[in-house]
Amino acid sequence: MSRPTVPTLLRMTTPTTWAGHTQGGEPFRRYMDRIPLAKPFWDEECEKAAIAALSSGRWVKGPQAKNFGEEFAKWCGAAAAVPCQSGSAALWAAMRLLGIGPGDEVIVPGMTFIATATSVSLVGATPIFADIEPDYWCICPDDVEAKITDKTKAVIGVHIFGQPFSSRLREICDKHGIALVEDAAQAHGASLNGIKAGAIG
Predict the structure, then answer these.
(1) How many domains does the chain have?
(2) So what's the pLDDT on residue 31?
(3) Is residue 156 situated within a structural domain?
(4) Is the pLDDT of residue 36 over 50?
(5) Hey, which end of the chain has fewer CB within 10 Å, N or C?
């Protein structure tokens, strides 16, 4: 017996059953459980390093985190790197380090993970949404420049889906004297004009 496709399943649903399907009810859950979000890969060296970190009892601020930060910064070509528990926490920390708070505005892309905007809101500032480029889905430099006001303190550029955002963002931020924060969580290793994501901002 062949399985129905998702479009077929959608046609089979009615408004009364749709909520059950979208809330994880049958039949969608049965099919979605078979689609892995990611396929992790590690070698013996990675496995030994992970076991050593777990066995040390120092899961936070241990030597492994310090060493990783130094090596990662070197690999990216960045001045420094501080490991954080998540990209969301890193963005919040960047807002705090820049002294951004109530009354300030930060320009963010209109399409990205929610943490880009919420990191701004969490410090009391206002996220201003800029359009994205239709070909690359990264924040549009022209729209960013159009949205800069005297309240703008920073732009968060997101290297999305493995694609670096335009280097024009750096030029625009320098021109207006505002900070450029990079969200490179989705593009580690990607580069543009020989500069890796994470070393532009």
Answers:
(1) 1
(2) 63
(3) yes
(4) yes
(5) N
Contacts of 6 (CB under 8 A, 6+ apart): 28, 31
Stronger pLDDT, 26 or 129, i.e. the higher one: 129
Over 70: is that where the pLDDT of 21 sits?
no
Which residues, at least 6 apart from 100, have a Cβ–Cβ distance to it below 8 Å? 106, 120, 123, 125, 153, 154
Domain with 161, as residue range(s), is 84-196
Does residue 17 lie within any of the structural domains?
A: no
Burial 63-77 (b: 16+ CB within 10 A, else e): ebbeebbeebbeebe
Q: How far is CA 156 from CA 25, 49, 85, 107, in A?
A: 37, 33, 19, 6
Q: How many residues does the chain have?
A: 201
In-domain check, residue 91: yes
> Residue written as tokens 């505005």?
105
Tell me the mean pLDDT in the region 29-42. 74
By DSSP bridging, strand 152-158 and strand 126-130 are unpaired
Phi-psi region of 3 (alpha: psi -120 to 50; beta: other; left: phi over 0): beta
Radius of gyration of the chain (CA): 21
**Its pTM surpasses 0.85:** no
Q: What is the DSSP letter of 2?
A: P
Q: Is the dihedral of CA 75, 81, 83, 84 positive or negative?
A: negative
Residue pair 138/165 in contact (Cβ under 8 Å)? The answer is yes
Single-letter amino acid code for the residue at 153: K
Asked if the structure places residue 117 within a domain, the reply is yes
